[in-house]
Amino acid sequence: MEPIRKEEIDDQACGSLAPKSKPCPRPKPGEAAGGCSFDGAQITLLPIMDAAHLVHGPVACAGNSWESRGSLSSGPSLSQYGFATDLTNNDIIFGGERKLKDSIDYIAGRFAPPAIFVYATCVTALIGEDMDAVCKEASERLGIPVVPVNSPGFVGSKNLGNRLAGDALLQYVIGTGEPELEASMGVNLIGEYNIAGEMWDIEKLMNQAGITLLSRITGDARYKEITWAHRAKANMVVCSRALLGLAKQMESKYGIPYFEGSFYGAKETTYSLRQMAFLLNDREMERRVDRLTEREESRLSHDLRPYRKILKGKKAVLYTGGVKSWSVISALKELGIQVVGVGTNKSSDEDVQRIADRVSDDTEYIPEGGASRIIKTVRERKADIMIAGGRNMYVAMKEQIPFVDINQERHKAYAGYEGLLRLAKELVDSIANPIWKLASSPAPWDKEGSYDR
Amino acid sequence: MSNERIDIPDYSSLFAEERYIQQRENKKQFEAPCSDEAKAEALAYSKSAEYLEKNFERKAVVINPHKACQPLGAVMAALGFEKTLPFVHGSQGCNSYFRSHLSRHFKEPTPAVSSSMTEDAAVFGGMSNMIDGLQNAVALYKPEMVAVCTTCMAEVIGDDLSAFIGNARQKGAISEDFPVTFANTPSFIGSHITGYDSMIRNILAQLFERSGQAAAPGTGEEGEKLNVLLGFEPYTGNFAEIRKILNAFDTKYTILGDHSGNYDSPANGEYEYYYGGTKLADVPKAANALGSLVLQKYTLKKTQDYISGTWKQQVASLSTPLGVKATDKLIETISELTGLPVPESLKEERGRVVDAYADSHPYLHGKRVALAGDPDLLLGLIGFCLEVGIEPVHILCSNGDVEFDDKKWKAEVEELLASSPYGSEAKVYVGKDLWHLRSLLLNDPVDLVIGSSHVKFAAKDAEVPLVRVGFPIFDRHHMHRNPIIGYQGALNLLTLIVNIVLEQLDNNPSGLVDLVR
What we know:
The complex is a heterodimer of chains A (453) and B (517).
Chain A: H1 37-45, E1 52-55, H2 59-63, E2 83-84, H3 89-94, H4 97-111, E3 116-119, H5 122-126, H6 131-142, E4 146-149, H7 158-173, E5 186-192, H8 198-209, E6 212-218, H9 223-227, E7 234-237, H10 240-254, E8 258-260, H11 266-280, H12 283-311, E9 315-318, H13 322-334, E10 338-343, H14 349-358, E11 364-366, H15 371-380, E12 385-388, H16 390-398, E13 403-405, H17 416-432, H18 434-440
Helix pairs in contact in A: 1-7, 4-6, 7-10, 11-12, 12-17, 13-14
Chain B: H1 11-14, H2 18-31, H3 36-46, H4 49-57, E1 62-63, H5 70-78, E2 84-89, H6 92-106, E3 113-114, H7 119-124, H8 127-141, E4 145-150, H9 152-157, H10 161-170, E5 180-183, H11 192-211, E6 226-229, H12 236-249, E7 253-255, H13 282-286, E8 291-294, H14 301-309, E9 314-317, H15 323-338, H16 344-364, E10 368-372, H17 375-388, E11 391-397, E12 403-404, E13 407-408, H18 409-418, E14 427-430, H19 434-443, E15 448-451, H20 456-461, E16 466-468, H21 486-506
Parallel strand pairs in B: 2-3, 2-4, 4-5, 6-7, 6-8, 8-9, 10-11, 10-15, 11-14, 15-16
Antiparallel strand pairs in B: 12-13
């Protein structure tokens, strides 16, 4: 693997170490914008399941969000607890550092976590809380890592928050521990959050190929394994835009090569596994991966046959962000589905380039958010199904458009070979469900007033 | 569908398969976990009386909060008015939380926009975000009114909303006469109910003032008699129920703040962005009504002050009318305010509910319950429990510290409890979180917990069934579409609770199952 040349490092606007050209796109005031940096930081770090995650701010930043993510845990569940310092009026005036210290002490004493992540919010950033100092002091006193995550909501988008969380990991966590076992062949997965258990499917595949998964950053992770992530032989960046910076910095700091990949669709999965084996530079492993991927692909292709028959030629509009905006296209193409519209407002230039490589020329790009814009495309292009996240789901229902949820609340794992099969079934079920026919046919006393679909 | 059925399990069953269990077991060597004994010991300690005491001494940290913040309530309030766009002034993530939160509860889209303030706004103030935001939002979503609420960020830097909106008009971002209401709703004070109250009050005040008329209670030319305010109402079905009751009286009325249109809109092929809501023109007329009926008196504190102060109206204040007695009170109040007799249909309905109570009471008598929720909802629930012979034991209200004139919520709850022998065991916990509730449930076990979806985890730890009532309910469908107020609501609540009790009986460890109960 040829290491990436120096000048390439800064060229990707959002995920990179030092964004020169342009920062993450700013949301336009007056639109229904997506999540904030605080939310993004939590998305990245909450899957560290055994750590405590303390929100330093008014109670509702945690109160509006705790326990509502689909990152699954195979063991500890401390990260599902909503810890908050609950700053109130007086704290805004006199400062909340005392409250923060007491909260950290309480959590350390009562829950004995291996580490505590402390999140800044708009309020603490604005009133100038010295969180870093409180965390440092507490860390020294308590003898456990207390990691400040400086990603208050107002600094920008969810993606920026992902990146800031990556910075916190690099600054405070990675490189502070050593693996107990010999891990000369380990790969880290960066940006895979084990939504609906996808990480477990991926882990299974890696096990079968004999590839050691060294650190999961951060799906179903334990704090300890992230401390030794710097001992990996390779990094795979799964959610490209958000944590690319982390992979790049690990490359320059520890010399770990990385690649960007995805597990959505058989082709992408095969590519990712092959790429891992290639970076590990192990001929035997490459042969094993070849055998595994061949076997899985042919089995999948057999299992998919009945679904392909139904899905062939169906048209979909895809509205999601980051890596999913292009990787899911590959998965859909393998199922015979044509993507006629794709949302790009959360995609970096590079993501858009990848989308362009995968779709046909007449695919419509939807550059801005908002349900009405997406719906318009669905209507104009006569799409059969909409694939997007939870906030757009209910609009699709109103418009009687079959819908599959692809974002963090989903309950089915779509990664890997088996995942594609699940996605196919979900799509078929969603399109075939009788309610769409019922919904789109007029009531008996209203025969002429037939709807579009 | 194809004939070849492949079984595709979702995650709850898929990862219970042996191969995944094995995979997790193998992984334990990397986790350096505590021993099973240590785990069991810690778990036992967390359930002990000693820890209960320690837990209640906890001052510093909130664990598993049971309240949302002011602007969330303000967004709901704004959606209660015709073609009104909620506009959240502050950083973007707050707005996306509110939209998710409300959508997950109602299973409906939530139209709301943000001024998306960032670092430069933190330094220079959010004026340009407000001006650009208003211009863009009005152009994009074509509302007839914009209701601006604030997040912590705007409040901490001290944005002057009145001046900003004035400047937006001056700069031509919005026209001079376009109605823009605002409310200051920092999250670090109060909760979602406080924010709901502020926004409703300000919308009423603004629409009234711009009409230029003077308040003249009882002079409504078009026969307006009564205004009804439901407050922070998580049940769209409750709006239909109160309408049914008022229609039975055959009186004219105005519901002030009716978000049931937006949160129970039909799927007819075209999403319209705004549905239903109180008509803007009806608000000034409402000032001429004889009186106002408030169904969440602790939530709507400022609004009541405004209606009685500025509109000089008689205000009848109730808490969420759950159960027969509270509904009786509601019916009496409506009758008094309008001077109309109680309609026969309601009398008959009452009789049917009492009959249903009689059918079910053997299974409910003496059941011990824990309750968690908003102040007015809890008052309603306590009343309901006491009248069917359920004994409230733990009553938890995270946001119950709101003072109400000279009377405090806690005092009223205790008075209500003292009125019945079934209330004698109850204790009220104000400002506590769900981690406190967990300790209570483990140390002083109950038969049922009544509360929102968030209570699920505490209930699960204590192995107590949860009856989902309140806000938010994320993990059950359509509960908000059925009313819980009025006689019909009493029947619905009764059905919900008694069937959970009967379900428990079927699952009893003795294995005895009766066919008839």
